[in-house]
UniProtKB/TrEMBL annotation:
CDD domains found in the cross-reference section: TMPK
Domain Thymidylate kinase-like span(s) in chain numbering: 11-191
GO annotations of cellular component type: cytosol; mitochondrion; nucleus
Taxonomic classification: Eukaryota, Metazoa, Chordata, Craniata, Vertebrata
Protein name: Thymidylate kinase
Pathway it works in: Pyrimidine metabolism; dTTP biosynthesis
PROSITE patterns (alphabetical): THYMIDYLATE_KINASE (PS01331)
Domain of life: Eukaryota
GO MF: ATP binding; dTMP kinase activity; nucleoside diphosphate kinase activity
Length: 212
């Protein structure tokens, strides 16, 4: 009998919502239960495409907005064979940002529609669950100053938040809003509950195609 597939679980949210903290805690908790699980992140800065993206985010290079948008998408597509292989082998993937960041961030720039921004990511492996870590800009500000990277300013982040709200209206994606203003432990408890449900459900379902 073929082994049961792993679940594709994504964490999204504005800067400082706690995505990286929670992805790491979730992976650790699932591993302690003896489950096959790995963490991924986008952008994945170690590939050749990822290095172009990283230089752009660090303001070391300039690219057209269209170019960088397509690079972010290409960075996901280049990892699709690996993701599919792992999922088929039964490994659950916990992913820090995905196509939703792609659409929410680029469409916060003037002249970019959400529809145009979603197009290059159409057909990517569809997450079984997308948890949106909800945190107000005021609470995010309490978690420290913005860094030096591109997009790290409150006006841009507010526009990003509004775009996420648009994306969350799409019933073809399984969204779960998480109250990210709780303590790290309480957020983790919510996240693990939803993740375990998703892992159990995904076992019996084929992997879907995003936005198709
Ligand atoms: P993101 O990946 O969403 O940008 P991080 O996980 O890097 O967010 O967290 C941003 C900062 O906020 C870190 O200093 C982290 O320790 C802190 N942090 C994360 N979650 C919480 C929480 N629930 N309450 C208070 N501080 C938090
Ligand atoms: N970002 C991330 C995008 O603009 N498009 C994307 O497709 C993705 C995955 O890159 F500002 C933005 C979001 C954030 C930056 O920062 C990546 P982190 O700190 O590595 O998550």
């Amino acid at each position: 009998m073929a082994c049961k597939r792993g679940a594709l679980i994504v964490l999204e949210g504005v800067d400082k919502a706690g995505k990286t903290t929670q992805c790491k805690k979730l992976v650790q908790a699932l591993q302690q239960e003896g489950r096959a699980v790995e963490m991924m992140r986008f952008p994945e800065r170690t590939t050749a495409i990822g290095q172009l993206i990283s230089a752009y985010l660090e303001n070391k290079s300039d690219l057209e907005d269209q170019t960088v948008h397509l690079l972010f998408s290409a960075n996901r597509w280049e990892l699709v064979p690996l993701m599919k292989k792992k999922l088929e082998q039964g490994t659950t993937l916990i992913v820090d940002r995905y196509a939703f960041s792609g659409a929410a961030f680029t469409s916060a720039k003037p002249g970019f529609s959400l529809d145009w921004c979603k197009k290059p990511d159409e057909g990517l492996p569809k997450p079984d669950l997308v948890m949106f870590l909800q945190l107000s800009p005021a609470e995010a500000a309490l978690r420290g100053q913005f860094g030096e990277e591109r997009y790290e300013n409150s006006v841009f982040q507010k526009a990003v938040q509004q775009n996420y709200e648009q994306l969350m209206k799409d019933p073809s994606v399984k969204w779960q809003v998480i109250n990210a203003s709780q303590s790290i432990e309480d957020v983790h408890k919510d996240i693990i509950t939803h993740s375990l449900n998703s892992i159990n459900t995904a076992h019996n379902l084929p992997l879907g195609a995003l936005w198709k």
